[in-house]
Design a protein that fits this description.
It is a single chain. This protein has helices spanning 30-45, 75-81, 85-91, 108-115, 142-150, 152-161, 167-172, 185-197, 201-216, 219-232, 237-248; strands at residues 6-11, 14-19, 51-55, 60-62, 97-101, 104-106, 118-122, 126-128, 165-166, 178-180. It is of the alpha/beta class. The protein has two domains: 6-197, 2-enoyl-CoA Hydratase, Chain A, domain 1 (Alpha-Beta Complex); 201-248, Lyase 2-enoyl-coa Hydratase, Chain  A, domain 2 (Orthogonal Bundle). It has a six-stranded mixed β-sheet, with helices on both faces. Helix 5 (142-150) crosses helix 6. It starts with 5 loop residues before the first strand and ends in a 9-residue tail after the last helix. 36% of the residues are buried.
Length: 257
């Protein structure tokens, strides 16, 4: 598939997807979202790829949804457009997605960032849900995921005022795992992706599912889900190899089986 609004590449076991609509600060329209989802699904289906890095430009990760695409739409048109079906497909990606965020991550851009499994931010990153300023509210998970991550009071303040959060505050509140200089943010994300790609693929997949379950269920349900995934991995060749390698004091050779 030829892409208009994204650039894709791969190095070793890492798939890299860069949003590329510089004239509109990587604003997300229907075409660019479909391309992002298609590329993520292609990486997910590619056995040579173990981890995915998603990034934008130094100036903007993604500065929101493309307002021109929806400004004149009716409620019924928005209902039938079902644009958030694309976002649900991102939730079904099995391989870890690491977001490398610089510049503006606003509105849909912030929501897309929160769909990533790990976020590395540059010092220039700014996160926000400014939909209130154009007469609507977040629609791709902003009110839900942001509240779960940073807490009710701060999320409410950001959603009701449209104010942005700095990279440093995002780190302090657990929205991102690291803040680095802008010139190395993608390199840091790729380095982390390589570390993850060196782990057993089946265990990585089930570990990702288990951590995500913590956001969506009660503690008792999450513990049950975790325990079943733990037991399931004892049916894998990688579990046998990993524990045998530990006993023999050698590096394991993962097969993804």
């Amino acid at each position: 598939m030829g892409y208009q609004h994204i650039l894709v590449s791969a190095e070793e076991k890492i798939g890299i997807l860069r949003m590329n609509r510089p004239n509109v600060l990587n604003a997300l329209n229907q075409v660019s979202m479909e391309e992002i989802v298609h590329a993520l699904e292609a990486f997910d289906a590619d056995d040579s790829i173990s981890c995915i890095v998603l990034t934008g430009s130094e100036k903007a990760w993604a500065a929101g949804a493309d307002i021109t695409e929806m400004a004149d739409a009716t409620a019924i048109e928005m209902l039938y457009r079902d644009q958030f079906a694309q976002w649900e497909r991102i939730k079904r990606i099995h391989k870890p997605i690491i977001g490398a965020v610089s510049g503006y991550a606003l509105g849909g851009g912030c929501e897309l960032a929160m769909l990533c499994d790990i976020l590395i931010a540059s010092e220039t990153a700014k996160f926000g849900q400014p939909e209130i300023r154009v007469g609507v509210i977040p629609g791709a998970g902003g009110t839900q995921r942001l509240t779960r991550i940073v807490g009710k009071s701060r999320a409410m303040e950001m959603v009701l005022t449209g104010e942005m959060m700095s990279a440093d505050e995002a780190y302090q509140r657990g929205l991102v795992s690291k803040v680095v200089p802008v010139e190395v943010v993608v390199d840091e994300a790729v380095a982390l992706a390589r570390r993850i790609a060196s782990q057993p693929p089946l265990a990585v997949r089930l570990a990702k599912e288990s951590v995500l379950k913590a956001y969506e269920t009660s503690l008792s349900e999450g513990l049950e889900f975790e325990r079943k995934n733990f037991y399931l991995l004892f049916a894998s060749e990688d579990q046998k190899e990993g524990m045998q390698a530990f006993k023999e004091k050698r590096d394991p050779r993962w097969q993804g089986k």
